[in-house]
Model the fold of this input.
Amino acid sequence: MPAIQPITKLPVGRVPGRVLVVGDPARVDLVTRRLENARELASSREYVTWIGDYEGTTVAVTSHGVGTSGAAVCFEELIRAGATRLVRAGTAGGLQPEVTDGDLVVATGAIRDDGVTRGLVPPEYPAVADHGVVVALLDAADRSPGNTMRSTHAGVVLSSDVFYHHDVLGSNLDLWQRAGAVAVEMECSALFVVAALHGAEAGAILAIDGNPLEASDASMDGYDPDRLVVSQAVDSMLDVALQALVG
Done:
């Protein structure tokens, strides 16, 4: 009987080397429709894991929830259970004017505006995506027939623990926009740092679902991730992520 990871309930030795990680457990369903012989491997809290075959390669897909704290647990236990190459596929807000709704962003690195990685490595330690995974994602995006009508950007993203800002401290998004961050999301920094500490490969591709700097205030009242342009971008993103995962 294989050992079981305590939080995700993943059985050690039964997780394939290549894993797609997504935030929303419902998004796991979108991925399993693209797999052959799909079957559930583990389910615990927000962590749902299925395995199946994609173009002849056995892969897994796991949901990690929102934010670096829970996601870092997921990434850690996936690697301890057998993962060696992880690709995150999620949504993000564009920070640059040219990064618009429905675009895709391949993260080359992440700004560590989170709490988890500060407890793992010194502040000088970079959160960098694996170069081979970045190249594979960009190549897959360029070849994807479903991605012909949208732009793909590559660059550093901001990983922030804060989604709803308040007036006490305000928002630092305009600062990071000026520094050149292309998008903001909530988990890439943890993925890149945890993977690097284990010598695993990691990368991320993100579908843009809005621009938080265009909101009139910090309430995010106008945020709507369920629009058609976003769902179409998510579909394209998942195809690209799977291609890069097995490439």
Remarks:
- The radius of gyration is 17 Å.
- The mean pLDDT is 94.
- Helices lie at 25-32, 68-81, 131-143, 173-178, 188-198, 228-246.
- The longest strand covers residues 85-94.
